[in-house]
Amino acid sequence: MKKDTNREIYKFDEFTHSYYSGMIAAVGERYRFISYDQYLATVETPFVIWRHDVDFSIHEALNLARIEHAQNLKATYFLLLHSEFYNIFEKSISEMISVIINLGHHIALHFDPSFYGIMDEAGLEENLRFESGIIEHIFGVDVTVFSFHNPTEEILKFDKWSYAGMINTYADELKKNVAYCSDSNGYWRFLGLTELINDRHPEKLQVLTHPEWWTEKVLSPKDKVWRCLDKRAEKNKQQYIDNLAFFGRSIIDW
After folding, report:
1. Spelled out in words, what is the top-level CATH class assigned to the domain 46-183+191-212?
2. How many angstroms separate the most distant Cα atoms in the chain?
């Protein structure tokens, strides 16, 4: 392999299901997995909170949920109501989310403040309640945690422990006292998780992964996003074809 290619620089080969499974096993040997709700009551270290912001793909979220379930890890999946890549109101998508819940994982809110032009705490809490209520109504779960989607410096000033009765993953308490590792944009933003736990040995750790970056085969981040788009387009076309067939109608073309 040519040295210094993007595949090597950004460690494409790490972002596979098999590597993910091994990574969980390695972390589980050294850390206790806890949820956000357990954080304040937890005194025993080392521990790790395992989180997913689901930006693109519920399909890959379900794949990771199954891998985690096989290793007794209960992760927290943050759903984005304003994603342009999936829709929690679609029957097939909501059914996959229900499977994730039935595997024992936690469902939380991935909140996009830019949709509302949030300016103050009152506006933040009003819209957090609204969106968490939708998830609770559809899936019959209690939403006790939220994360910001693409937060700006202004939004990160909302750093209290909780808003609208939900724990804030960007709370000052967590930012100051818990080490952080993220795969945003399809590569490790800071240190990779393996390097972090081997070199720095943090006692308290929060791991953020985005399911769309973890696939069966080795792909580039661009390939993974393009694949999500192509598969969604194919699905919508097939739904149109199936709907016409159900009503005994024809596809009218040139």
Report:
1. alpha beta
2. 69
